Amino acid sequence: MVVPYFWVRGARPADIESAFEAHRGVAGVDLVDDVDDEYMMRAEWDDDYYGVLNALAHANIAVLSGAGTRDGWRFEVRGEDREAIGEFRTDCQDRDIDIGITAVHSLLPVQGDGYDLTETQREALVLA
What we know:
The chain contains four helices and five strands. By secondary structure, the protein is α+β, with helices and mostly antiparallel strands. The protein has two domains: 1-49; 51-128, no CATH class.
């Protein structure tokens, strides 16, 4: 199962549920909890549907965050290497899944010892 739980803000639960009813990859969506007009929802995905989340999982790419609007979704993801991102992109193209990759960054190694903390930061960590 891929990302069954998600938070929604700025919409009523009934509107959220009806919006997901139109998505052919969703078998059902339920309200799990609500806190200050934010709603935790649980989606049940159709096993026969292959979408962007399946493509990410297939390429072993982790979803760090995601934000959706009426216009679409934006995900921040992390893959092991550029080849994984390429595999994801090719998989989406082969299945006519419309995506746009806006940026790809390489991780840089940590420089120096102690993660370049200030003396005050280092002292706070030691005391913690």
